[in-house]
Amino acid sequence: MARTGYQLVDISPWPLSASFAALGLTTGMISLFCEGMSNFVLVLALSSFSLLVFTLVRWWGDVILESTFLGCYSSYVVRNLRCAMFLFILSEVFFFVSFFWGFFNGSVGELSMQGVGMWPPKGINPIYPWRVPFLNTIVLLSSALTVTWAHKAVSAHNMVDYSGLYLSLKGKTESFSSSKYYQLHGLFSLGFTILLGLFFTYLQATEYYMASFSICDSIYGSTFFLLTGFHGMHVMVGTIFLIVCWFRLYLLHFSYQHHYFGLDAAVYYWHFVDVVWIGVFASVYVWGY
């Protein structure tokens, strides 16, 4: 690092174990779709999911160790990670573009003109958009405000020296009080964001349970559940991301002059999820109704 400014990553087993976990989950899902539930599918899914959770915990733990305690992440490394996060979000954008493309192709495109003839297809009773979906929109947009509040609080917390705890100077003591004040603000707002994310997931699951159609009901059911389901999965991943950041903030990982890129990445990801939901609500729920 002294010569290049970049960290030379040590050999790690976690990319390999994550690949095996993803392979096992994919194989189990394909077997479930083709052959139905069996002992093989259940054992493969549980073992792969356990391996994935173990890999993520250890991998994130190594990253936190390198960045926070070993000081391996210079400004060059953080800039590299920031660019990588933007590229990852860009790939996620095109991931959702494919589902929106399928939805509009089925509703106003070639498939609709040749086979369906009307949208939603006859026999499908779509979900009324101004009840649970509209409440979900309010919840998710409110979480965007609270996560921005947390981001600003952590940014201020990062700029205040904690050394006032050990010094008797008046100014330093006030600095410590301010740092603690911003940390508490960040913990509260970030925790409230996590609760809103969990509430959104609960409302989405309730909506699925109450829906009058399933993923097997024509192209409408397939595109609806794929689009909203993958968005819900991203909400759950983002919620876990924010929970990790909450504990890191509690443990003072984002204190004075410690970079907080982990929180930056979580906030970027959460705002992306918010924007996607606006598109889902406007096109699938409102326009599709």
From TrEMBL:
Encoding gene per record: COX3
Keyword annotations: Membrane, Mitochondrion, Translocase, Transmembrane, Transmembrane helix
Domain of life: Eukaryota
Pfam families given in the database record: COX3
Single Gene Ontology MF annotation: cytochrome-c oxidase activity
UniProt-listed PROSITE patterns: COX3 (PS50253)
Subcellular location: Membrane
Protein name: Cytochrome c oxidase subunit 3
UniProt domain Heme-copper oxidase subunit III family profile: residue ranges: 2-289
The keyword Nucleotide-binding is assigned to this record: no
UniProt source species: Dosinia japonica
Function: Component of the cytochrome c oxidase, the last enzyme in the mitochondrial electron transport chain which drives oxidative phosphorylation. The respiratory chain contains 3 multisubunit complexes succinate dehydrogenase (complex II, CII), ubiquinol-cytochrome c oxidoreductase (cytochrome b-c1 complex, complex III, CIII) and cytochrome c oxidase (complex IV, CIV), that cooperate to transfer electrons derived from NADH and succinate to molecular oxygen, creating an electrochemical gradient over the inner membrane that drives transmembrane transport and the ATP synthase.
Gene Ontology terms describing biological process: mitochondrial electron transport, cytochrome c to oxygen
Record field: transmembrane: 12-33, 40-60, 84-104, 181-202, 235-256, 268-288
Keyword Glycosyltransferase recorded: no
Annotated family: Belongs to the cytochrome c oxidase subunit 3 family.
Membrane topology classification: Multi-pass membrane protein
Lineage: Eukaryota, Metazoa, Spiralia, Lophotrochozoa, Mollusca
SUPFAM superfamilies per the UniProt record, alphabetical: Cytochrome c oxidase subunit III-like
One GO CC term, this protein: mitochondrion
